[in-house]
């Protein structure tokens, strides 16, 4: 990241945000079109009293925990993160870290629910396994990734958002910014 000046870093981040690529059902969409589709899905989920599960590792887990607040408070959704420490370490110890989220998704997700899968690299095995488990349960999947275009996660969601950066900070902040925007828009819809 070019951090020589704050304005340089802001310009670079603006390029990441305007460069986000989105797809829905294998079709390339503008970010605005993808967000509009996602908002419709979230309103449907809210009216059906469905659950939204949000997962990530490291900084992406922090993004998941942060955005859960807004999706519950502003969005009026039944939003849950799945990385409560004692439960996550139990699942990891008993079934392996790559299966920890998948085990929890299989336990909690039901047909019509939604999984938001966040991975900067888009290659985290535990996230990919959880997406497969969500599909088995009949839940929809929203993916947020970065780094290499065409990474495995970037093609697995019903809606996919890919941030064009190889910098963890930029990708994580772009995901948080995008999800905050979605939560703010959702709060305006009944």
UniProtKB/TrEMBL annotation:
Alphabetical GO biological process terms: carbohydrate derivative metabolic process
Domain of life, source organism: Bacteria
One Gene Ontology MF term: isomerase activity
Signal peptide: none
Domain SIS: 41-190
CDD domains, per the entry: SIS_GmhA
Tagged with keyword Isomerase: yes
Gene3D superfamilies for this protein: Glucose-6-phosphate isomerase like protein, domain 1
InterPro entries noted in UniProt: GmhA/DiaA, SIS_dom, SIS_dom_sf, SIS_GmhA/DiaA_subfam
Any single Pfam family the record assigns to this protein: SIS_2
Keyword Ribonucleoprotein: no
Keywords: Isomerase
PANTHER family registered for this protein in UniProt: PHOSPHOHEPTOSE ISOMERASE, SEDOHEPTULOSE 7-PHOSPHATE ISOMERASE / DNAA INITIATOR-ASSOCIATING FACTOR FOR REPLICATION INITIATION
Name the UniProt record assigns to this protein: D-sedoheptulose 7-phosphate isomerase
Organism: Paludibacterium purpuratum
């Amino acid at each position: 990241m070019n951090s020589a000046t704050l304005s340089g870093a802001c310009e670079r981040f603006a390029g990441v945000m305007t460069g986000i690529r989105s797809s829905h059902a294998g079709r390339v969409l503008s970010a605005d079109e993808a967000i509009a589709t996602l908002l419709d899905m979230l309103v449907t989920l809210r009216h059906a009293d469905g659950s939204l599960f949000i997962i990530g590792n490291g900084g992406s887990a922090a993004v998941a925990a942060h955005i859960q607040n807004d999706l519950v408070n502003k969005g009026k959704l039944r939003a849950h993160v799945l990385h409560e420490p004692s439960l996550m370490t139990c699942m990891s110890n008993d079934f392996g870290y790559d299966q920890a989220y998948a085990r929890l998704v299989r336990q909690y997700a039901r047909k019509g629910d939604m999984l938001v899968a966040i991975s900067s690299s888009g290659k985290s095995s535990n996230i990919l396994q959880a997406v497969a488990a969500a599909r088995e349960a009949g839940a929809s999947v929203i993916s947020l990734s970065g780094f290499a275009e065409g990474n495995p996660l970037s093609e697995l969601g019903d809606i996919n958002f890919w941030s064009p950066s190889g910098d963890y900070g930029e990708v994580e902040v772009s995901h948080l910014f995008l999800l905050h925007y979605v939560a703010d828009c959702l709060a305006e819809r009944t």
